[in-house]
Amino acid sequence: MILYPAIDIMEGCAVRLTKGNFEAKKVYDEDPLSAARAWVRAGATHLHVVDLDGARAGHPVNLRHVARIARELSVPVQLGGGLRTLQAIEDTLKAGARRAILGTAAFTDPQLLDTALARWPERIVVSVDVRGGHVSTAGWTETTQSTARETIASLQARGVKDIVYTNVDRDGMLEGPDLAEVADIAKSIHGRMTYSGGIGQLADLEALKALAEPSLTGVIVGKALYEERFTVAAARAALGG
């Protein structure tokens, strides 16, 4: 399983939110590149970047930081946040991101998703963010009536192979994932799933690994790494390298 240290960019800084609340942020580094460099030096082989400003604005805002990270560090970067047009996706990939993560647009603009999948079949990921059992969109500010399972089934029917699943209620809480929920969602996915939300200790990573779900191929960790609850090396070891 792949470890993805998270770099959430807001107002030019690397921050973390609590439960997706933009008013509950904590700045961990004033330069996203500095944060990214620290994770790579610690052994990270992949990075997960979120343009929080872009998620709220509806278009990318921090691509210059993504370009700096991709240019100076030799690891794959995936980026989400505000990618709601084909031009935004193309600009993201040109900036150096290996994969573009679609959120709101995947649910509100079927034609955009279909075109993106056709144009960049191996580089499109869809983010399914769940709050209170229902899918959230628009930078976690709006909640739909669709359940995660319903949404994932629809996405897979349209050809989506890679999904980032986030439990927003647990995000930044450091209280661990709901393992039964993760296992249930993983069983419904025929492609690849990366989990995010609530990782607080190495035991959480070991428990996710122990689920032995073939579709669960990655875990995103943010606050626990920033708060030094464990190291990148220890996390990678817990996930099987």
Model description:
Helix 1 packs parallel to helix 3. The longest helix is centred in the N-terminal third of the chain and has 10 residues, at 32-41. The mean pLDDT is 94. This protein is α/β, with parallel strands linked by helices and 241 residues long. The protein has an 8-stranded parallel β-barrel, surrounded by 7 helices. Helix content is 37%, strand content 30%.
Strands, count: 12
Second rung of CATH, namely the architecture: Alpha-Beta Barrel
**Fraction of residues in H or I helices:** 25-40%
Q: According to CATH, what is the topology? A: TIM Barrel
Mean pLDDT: 94
Count of structural domains: 1
User: Could you say which structural class the secondary elements and strand pairing correspond to?
Assistant: alpha/beta
Q: What Rg is obtained from the alpha carbons, in whole angstroms?
A: 16 Å
User: Count of helical segments?
Assistant: 11
Largest beta-sheet details: 8 strands, parallel, barrel
Give the strand order of the largest sheet, numbering strands 1, 2, ... along the chain.
1-4-5-6-7-10-11-12
Q: Calculate the terminal CA-CA distance, rounded to whole Å.
A: 7 Å
CATH superfamily: Aldolase class I
User: What is the level 1 CATH name?
Assistant: Alpha Beta
* Order of helical and strand elements: EEEHEHHEHEHHEEEHEHEHEHH
Low-pLDDT windows of residues: none
CA-based shape: globular
